Amino acid sequence: MQILLIFLAIFLTSVWGSFYPYTLPVLALISFIPIVYILYRDRKKEFRPQGKKYKLLEKIRKKREKIERDKHKHISDQIKYIEKVWGYTKEQNSIITKFIETKAYMELYNKLTASILPQIITLIDNCNEREQKGCKRDVSQRLRALTTLMKEEMQKSSSEKKEHFDISLEVCDQLLSKQYPN
To answer: Which range marks the domain in which residue 145 is found?
Structure first.
């Protein structure tokens, strides 16, 4: 239907132009203004579904992102506090940095923030207050155990990602072979 209207407009314009050729520039200007407006309006529009299900999904997505940001801040704050008050070796620092950047702490989050990191922080604070010499060994030992745990978790999460990718490829291959058999 739209194509028919376009050809009808072209036909009427050519007939009009053959009888009144001096009015064609005016018609071109009059048609140019709405074309520019429509193109500008369509370009400015973004895809925003207004359905209730879409809004609910967006709300859930934003809530999950906020929870993830809060978790990241919480664990980062605890690790930065330990770094500021006690410090890490270069190797520990690189492992911890990778651990935080890759967000490999998702499985261990509750264990780290509720148990392991607060215990290390308390031990460090007590050690610094009393200036005990024997507790420095305990803190170093716990930090080594923590970085070992972080290293294992990063390896585990990277192998899970690779495994997930391999499974996804296999599923895709199977679907394609069913869809397009040789």
So the answer is: 58-153
